[in-house]
Amino acid sequence: MDTSNIKTKLKDPRIIMCFVATVLLFFKWSTYVVSSSYMDYAESSASMTNLGFQFLMLSVLGYITMAFPVVAIIGELIEHESVKKPFFYIGGSLASLLGIIVTALKMAGIVGSSNIDYGGYGHVKGETRFEIFFWLEILIFVGIIVVSVMREYGVTGSTIREEGVKSVISDVTGKMTNGIAELKKNAAELRNADKAGQNGRTCPSCGNTVAFGKKFCSKCGHKMEDEGPSLAENIKGRVSKVGKSGVTVAEYISSLKQVKCEACGSMVSSTSKFCPGCGKEVVIMITPDTCPACGEKITKGNTFCSRCGAEVKKKKLIKNCPNCGADLIFGKNFCPECGKSIEEA
Predict the structure, then answer these.
(1) Residue 295 CA: distances (Å) to CA of 23, 178, 326
(2) Of 70, 162, 163, 310, which has the fewest CB atoms closer than 10 Å, so is most exposed?
(3) What are the structural domain ranges in the chain?
(4) Whole-prediction pTM
């Protein structure tokens, strides 16, 4: 594992906050005080303190609050894919806050049930006092959410000043809603594709599933021969070829239709090998989605990484692996056939 990369990740404010959140679990979060009096006896009181982890163990959701910061730190250090997803830190922090709130409400219920009034003879009264470290834990998770929103959706101080808090919140909420809807749509398409891939192709006329090898739809009579492969077949074809679904670089380039010649600036067909205007080779340059130094997601239009400050340079799109000639998958840094790094091949 790259030591310099680890040091860069450890400087991430979200990782620092996750570390502090974990440490705070071993500090005093609450004090439970019980006072009682009976007839002519002097009032007496007793107290019991709860450390953070003891407090959270009162509810099942509290375990999420304890686990999330640790999972985030480990995930970043081993560079797991899940920590790079937009909703990981936001969703994890919201779940952690929910764990704290539910546990606090449960404790309030326990304390409330211990209050007993004996009329004029005396009483037993319980009270919970939340300590400073309890409130610090809440502020830390709120801070993680704020930093994540600013990074994932390009929110800056100048953006807030120019557009206003209300407008920025509305914009971010819209993007998050669209992102969740897109994830649901993709999941549904994959489920439908898998189902169709097991049973046959979908008839484009009536939607009926037609078994592989059949030339006509049994429901509407539509001719199936010469039909292109279904979504399921495309996905399964890619799975058998590269180990998992994905779009090849060649397919991505073809979808661009037109690109600008890096030499003369003319617009040319994305599939052309040479520019008709200047005769130079058509080279398609693209900005990486993630920082090559630390793996942070790069906001569109940025030329420097918001996490480590490294310059993000455009790189040339390569269709085939220089080592074995296999089709490369768009967005992946390794060849699906020989496993060679594209930069090293």
Answers:
(1) 26, 24, 25
(2) 162
(3) 3-171, 191-245
(4) 0.52
